[in-house]
Each structure stands twice: as structure tokens, then as C-alpha cells.
Amino acid sequence: MAAADSDKIRQRYDRLAPWFDSLEGILEGLLFRRLRKRLWSQVSGDHILEVGVGTGKNFAFYPDGARITGIDFSPNMLAQAQRKRQRKQLDVDLARMDVESLDYADNCFDTVVASFVFCSVPRPRRGLKELYRVCKPGGQVLLLEHVLSSNRVMAFMMNLFNPLAVRAFGANINRDTLKNVQACPFRNIYIDPASGDMIKLIRAVK
């Protein structure tokens, strides 16, 4: 069932890939870009993994001098990122891969980054445990995610409209990502003070 769910979500992102940047353009300019910049300002270490690289929206924030790998499970989204990499002449390795089953050894990345990814992972705890596995001891996982509101009325509306969001975009708008992170054996978990009710910046230290 999870494999079938993953295939459906992948197909939706493949379909949206050519227009994805335009679809999120207004939100990107008003809010997301500022949060992405804050997220990437916390990156440290020489070997960085970006999970769910998408069309390459985070390319502008990549730190100088680090070895960076970006993965995505959608070939069409990855193709957009590859074209953007060429235009910007960026030194980043791109690979097609599913976060629920990473082809990397244990303890090999200093920082693992994901932005607006775990809303669309069929088994988010499995994916988060993979991030924990490939992160070095003392390393960090940095997440920027939209989550279920703590406001009961808003949460009811988000739960009500979630099936529509999944069908249209492949993304769940009602995930409790913080609870999923807390289910992993991280040493420390921090919520960035810039976080709001429905968008969280989370730093988890292994």
C-alpha cells in the first residue's frame, strides 16, 4: 500500500514539475524564501544532504565550500533542478532517491536538510529514521515543515480539506511532524523561535 501511495504522489509531482515554481511564487516571495534562508543559515559541516531538492528552490542558500548532495523521488522535479544547476553553474550532486530508503551508509552527513518534504512522505517516521541513520553522531537534521494547527477550528478545517490537498498536490496539510521527529532517538530537538503555528523550523541533533 505504501509503495502504491508513493507512486501516486510521485506522479502528481511529476505532473506539477514544469509549473511548480510558478504555483508557489507568491507564497515563496512573501514567506517561504525568508524561512528557507533562516533554515540554511543553521547548516554546518563539510558534507550536506538535501532531501526533497525539488526544483532547486534552496540552491540560492547553499553554503560555500561544502560538499552538497540533493535527492528527490520525482524524476521531473529532478530534471528541473538539473537545468537550474546548469544555469547557476552550481557544484551539487543530484540523484533520484526515496527518503524512505536512502542509498547511503550510516553516519555519513554532517547536516541533513529538508524543506516542505514530510507532508508528502507516505511513511514519515520511516523517512525521518532514515535521516537519523545517515546523519553523523553530533550532526543535525534541519526541517522546515508546515504542520497541523494547534487551533482546534483551524485543525478541523485542515483535516477536512486534507484529502483534497493530497489528490491535487500529493501533500498532506495536517501532519504532526514534530511528534514524528520526537519518535526518533535524537539527543536534542529545538523549535526555532521564528516558527509559527502552522510552519515549524525544527533542529534535531543526533
Automatic annotation (TrEMBL):
<dbReference type="InterPro" id="IPR029063">
    <property type="entry name" value="SAM-dependent_MTases_sf"/>
</dbReference>
<dbReference type="GO" id="GO:0008168">
    <property type="term" value="F:methyltransferase activity"/>
</dbReference>
<dbReference type="InterPro" id="IPR013216">
    <property type="entry name" value="Methyltransf_11"/>
</dbReference>
<keyword id="KW-0489">Methyltransferase</keyword>
<dbReference type="InterPro" id="IPR052356">
    <property type="entry name" value="Thiol_S-MT"/>
</dbReference>
<keyword id="KW-0808">Transferase</keyword>
<protein>
    <submittedName>
        <fullName>Class I SAM-dependent methyltransferase</fullName>
    </submittedName>
</protein>
<dbReference type="Pfam" id="PF08241">
    <property type="entry name" value="Methyltransf_11"/>
</dbReference>
<feature type="domain" description="Methyltransferase type 11">
    <location>
        <begin position="49"/>
        <end position="142"/>
    </location>
</feature>
<dbReference type="GO" id="GO:0032259">
    <property type="term" value="P:methylation"/>
</dbReference>
